[in-house]
Amino acid sequence: MIEGRIIKLDAETRRVVIATAQGQEIDVTFPEGATIEVSEPETMGTMGGELEDLHEGYWVEVEIASHNSDGSCNCATLVSVS
């Protein structure tokens, strides 16, 4: 599990760069069907969402499904915690 803040988001290419508290920048691709959960303020929980529901600056927890030869990662699950 990776925790960090979204610093770049490209919904068209389904790529996100996440900055961790340790100063790493991790390039993540979201394949079709990846699970995305976003904050639901009314219940203080999360609900199903889309990549387009995310914004730069959001804090997220990401479960990595696989690593690519170029160093980027494919995401299985993302939960927005902000």
UniProtKB/TrEMBL annotation:
<protein>
    <recommendedName>
        <fullName>DUF5666 domain-containing protein</fullName>
    </recommendedName>
</protein>
